Amino acid sequence: VKPEVAQLRAVDWSGRAVRILDQTLLPGEVRFLDLLSPEEVAEAIRGLRVRGAPAIGVAAALGVALAGERSSEAALTDSVMRAIESLGSTRPTAVNLSWALGRMRGVVESFVGKHGGARDRAPEMKQALLGEALLIMEEDRALCSKIGENGEPLLEDGHTVLTHCNAGALATAGMGTALAVVYAAVEKGKRIKVIADETRPLLQGARLTAWELVSRDIEVTVICDSAAAWLMKQRRVDCVLIGADRVARNGDLANKVGSYSLAIAAREHQIPFYSACPHSTIDLSLANGSGIQVEERGEEELRVLGSRVVVPDGAGVYNPAFDVVPHAYVSAIITDRGVVRPPYEGKLGG
Ligand code: MRU
User: In angstroms, what CA-CA distances link 100 with 38, 173, 206, 279, 320?
Assistant: First the structure.
C-alpha cells in the first residue's frame, strides 16, 4: 500500500457529489465513487460501501445537502424531508445516523418555522443545508483527533492492542475512534502492535483495519475471531480497544457482533476492555442497552463466502450485525470529552 493511501478520505464532499471510498472493494482495489443523489447515498450506506458509525452520519448529512442542491425551489422542503426519511431508514443501530439527520432536520425547521414557508428563501436554505453537512464532517475530524489525544495515555510503549471490526479512518471523516488512540500513541513514539479480529462475516477487520494499519506502517496481525480468547489466555493481548455504534446512559454499548464475546473473555483474563467513540455516538435517550435495535442483515452474507456457497440448503441462517456489551464489562469509554470510568451513569454527557 502506498503511503499516500494513508491520506485518503472515507467520505468527502467533491463540490457536487458525496465522494466515498468504496469499502466493499478493499483491500484489492482503491476506488472512489461520486454519489450524485440521496438514493445513491442510501444505497451506499445500506450496502456498506461507506460504513462505520461516524462515517454513515457524515455521508447521510451530505446526502441531505445533495437532495437540497438537486431540488427545484418549489419542492425543496419536501425533497429534503423525504431524503432525511429515506436515509434514516438505511441502518438502525448506529445512532450517529439519526443524530446527523436530526441536525439536518433542524436546519429545515429553522427555515420553515421562522418564515412559515421556505420557498422564497430556497437558495439560502440550500446553502445552510450544505453548510451544516460540511460542519458535521469537519467536526467529526476534530472529534477523532480529540479521542486520540484523550485515549493515548491508556496505551503504554510495547503494548499489543486487540481490536474488532474497523473503528479507524475508514469508519469516520477523520483518523478514526479506536484506531485514533493507536495513531496518537504511535505519534508519541510508543511502539504499539495491533491484533485485528478478521470480523466475520464481512471481514472489516481483515479487509479494512489491517489495510489502514499497513498503510500507516503499524504492525498488525489478523486472527480469526474465535482465536481472540486463546490469545488473551496466553497474555498476548494488553488491552481490547473497539469503537461503538450506540452507547446508552449507563454505559451499555452496541458494537459489531463479536464485541460481547471479547468483553467476556477480557474480563475472564483481567484484560482492560476499552471503547472509543465521539459524543455523537452516545444516546442519552436510552437508560440502558435493552433499547438498542440490533440490525439483522441478509442470509447471503453467511451463505456465500466469495463465490462459494458454504451453508447447505435447508439449514437456517441468522445474521445479527451487532451485539450489546453490558457496561459492567467496560473498563473505560474514551470520548472527545475525556476518559470516562465506571460508574458511567450521569458522566456520559447531557
Ligand atoms: O457494520 P459496520 O462495518 O458499519 O460496523 C461498524 C462497527 O461496528 C464499528 O466498530 C463502529 O461503527 C465504530 S466506528 C468508529
Answer: 15, 13, 29, 12, 24
Residue 5 has pLDDT above 90, yes or no: no
Measured from the Cα of 51, ligand 1's closest atom is 4
In angstroms, the CA 202 to CA 209 distance is 12
Cell 481490536, residue? 163
Pocket lining for ligand 1, CB < 6 angstroms: 48, 51-54, 94, 165, 167, 171-172, 177, 204, 242-245, 255-256, 321
Average pLDDT over all residues of the chain: 96
According to the model, what pLDDT value does residue 112 have?
87
Q: Please, which residues bridge with residue 335 across strands?
A: 338
Residue 2: its pLDDT value, please? 58
**C-alpha 166 – ligand 1 centre gap (Å):** 6
What number is the average pLDDT over the span 295-324? Answer: 97
Strands 246-247 and 304-305: unpaired
pLDDT digits (tens, 9 = 90+) for 17-37: 999 999 999 999 999 999 999
CB-side neighbour CA atoms (13 Å) of 240: 32
Is residue 115 scored above 60 in pLDDT? no
Catalytic residue among 12, 197, 238, 245: 245
What is the Cα–Cα distance from 86 to 146, expressed in whole angstroms? 31
Q: What is the pTM of this model?
A: 0.96
**Beta-ladder partners of 289:** none
Phi, psi angles (nearest 5°) of residue 236: -100, 5
